Amino acid sequence: MRIISTERSQVLAARISEKLGVPLVETKFARFPDGEMHLRCGELDDETLIVSSVVNNDMFVQTLLAIDAADRSRKTLVVPYLGYSRQDRQFAPGEPVSARAVARALSNGIERAFAVNIHDPGVLDYFGVPAYDITIAPAIGGYVGDLRLKDPLILAPDEGATEFAAGVAAVGGWDCDHLEKTRLSGEEVRIAPKTIDAGGREVVIVDDIISTGGTLATAACMLREQGAASIHAACVHGVLASGAYTRLRAAGISSVVSSDTYENASSFISAANAIATAIRDDAHR
Ligand code: R5P
Predict the structure, then answer these.
(1) Is 88 in the pocket of ligand 1 (CB under 6 A)?
(2) Which of 32, 99, 224, 241 is deepest in the core (most CB within 10 A)?
């Protein structure tokens, strides 16, 4: 087996290569004068692991090109961050189910696919091949442990993220809750942990994606008002669109970290171990 990656997943691909003890093959990326993309992989063998987060439209096309470049090989696609996965149903007439369109296109020519903390596991059914989700809640829990906080409270920003938050909290046996929005009047809402008082606590808000940061910034302001001693944020996919990082820090969040499923300067947590383990386990099935 050999590993190739697209341009925005190079670091994660190298880490997976080390964990699996499988060679990483150099891939060169370029553009033609008209803007079309080009890539060239080194020598592959009969089995290829393609590591490619679809972080934007260019990476979607590069993923298709990488799959085709490995045409003579059996291929596993690791798509740690699957862009468009939040449009997982038709919200209004005439709209596409974008997650389905992307999953279908990526399924051509591959044997199996792996995603990491996909926004909605139902999207895996849109792949035309066996597709699996991998959680890195334990890796995020490991990071929280490294922060050496005093009796941290792990909070999910909504009920949907509760299972993920529980996976993080299980690492240290920490308290865990989710935030709940209560409408106090026409203009006023209160966002607070459902059951645990945040007063005096060191809080870590965990989520699958930080995109604009709006969800966490609002939660942080409310938690400060409720007397939280400190607030940290950790997520899987640090999209950090529209100045989200500064927005969160300005909202009083002491640290904002994400994983290398979406490579950027806040990617202090790695999904490599969880991905390598899932691939090894699947090979033994
Ligand atoms: C929502 O269901 C997701 O889990 C995230 O909470 C959401 O995508 C975050 O978006 P934003 O950072 O733009 O508030």
Answers:
(1) no
(2) 99
Q: In what order do the strands lie in the sheet with 255-259?
A: 189-193, 175-183, 153-156, 202-210, 230-238, 255-259, 267-269
β-bridge pairing 47-51 and 74-79: parallel
Distance (angstroms) between ligand 1 centre and the Cα of 69 equals 34
Ligand 1 centroid–CA 38 distance in Å is 33
pLDDT tens digits, residue range 206-263?
999 999 999 999 999 999 999 999 999 999 999 999 999 999 999 999 999 999 999 9
The minimum-distance atom of ligand 1 relative to the CA of 119 is: 4
Q: For the whole model, what pTM was predicted?
A: 0.95
Pairing between β-strand 255-259 and β-strand 230-238 as defined by DSSP bridges: parallel
The C-alpha atoms of residue 72 and residue 202 are separated, in whole angstroms, by: 53
Backbone angles phi, psi at 194, to 5 degrees: -60, -45
Q: Which atom of ligand 1 is nearest to the CA of 215?
A: 14
The H or E element that residue 141 is part of is: helix 137-146
For 67-117, how does the pLDDT look when each residue is reduced to its tens digit (9 = 90+)?
999 999 999 999 999 999 999 999 999 999 999 999 999 999 999 999 999
Q: Is 214 in the pocket of ligand 1 (CB under 6 A)?
A: yes
DSSP state of 24: B
The angle subtended at Cα 137 by Cα 268 and Cα 196, nearest 5°, is 105
Ligand 1 near 210 CB (within 6 A) = yes
Can you tell me the distance from the alpha carbon of 285 to that of 283, in angstroms, rounded to the nearest whole number? 6
Ligand 1 atom closest to 86 (CA): 8
